[in-house]
Amino acid sequence: MLGGAYCLSAQAPAPVGMMTWQLSGTLPKAVQAQSPMPMSDIPKMQFQFGGDGKRFAMSVALADSVSDPAMAVFADATIKMVVRAGGDTVDVAIGVPAAARAMVASLASPENSANPPEGYRISAAMPNLDSLMKANIDKVDSVNTNDVKTRSLATTRKVGGLTCTNWQMITATDTVDVCVVENLPFSGAMQSWMASKLNFAELMKRAGSTTTQLFGGKMAFPIRLSSGDGSFVMEMVSTSDAAPPAAFFEIPTAFKSIDPKKLQTPG
Description:
Number of helices: 5
Number of domains: 1
Strand content: 35-45%
Distance between the termini: 30 Å
Order of helices and strands: EEHEEEEHEHEEEHHEEE
Number of strands: 13
Structural class: alpha+beta
């Protein structure tokens, strides 16, 4: 298990609710082009997002079966991030799968290589994300919606218990099937709150404007994306207006504490 807890300033209550997403496969080239980090083939993963008004958490779980030998030792790994309504530090808890503990210990705490710990805890000042997000704002500005054609298929389907409308996004390299809803309260509240707290509200505003242009002039929340050949699928599995249980926000405390400076790349 891998886990992290993020604590930063927040003026408004965290959103209340929970939703679960799953994705796997080879990202369409059009999606890769808009990703903030390089990636193409990804193993099956599950993402959960939840808030209870005081905290917001995200957990990521890797599938228990990983075909890539380089990633196999991280099967069953999870990442958890918890954002609290107050504070300006980031507390990270990293729990490591048994098969990967010796390797991680050799990098994070060589003195413990013979008896590697189950996990680690790191506490550091919350970084300012303005400069990182500025690059992505420029990236959104560079997107020419004239290069992306969309068309409504005039059909619907059920995704995660919701009825969504089927569209196609057509680019020079891909055709991506997208199913959208016009209202997704928890997702909208979550995105607005996180954008405000992590200083990327302008990025979300511009991305929202682009989305509106693509889907018939209406605000749209994609809840399923898939490649034309089915090699990539990302979809919402469930959503709820109820707060998740307290355990969803818990970060293990019995991990070895390490200095975040040790994780910095020299130079």
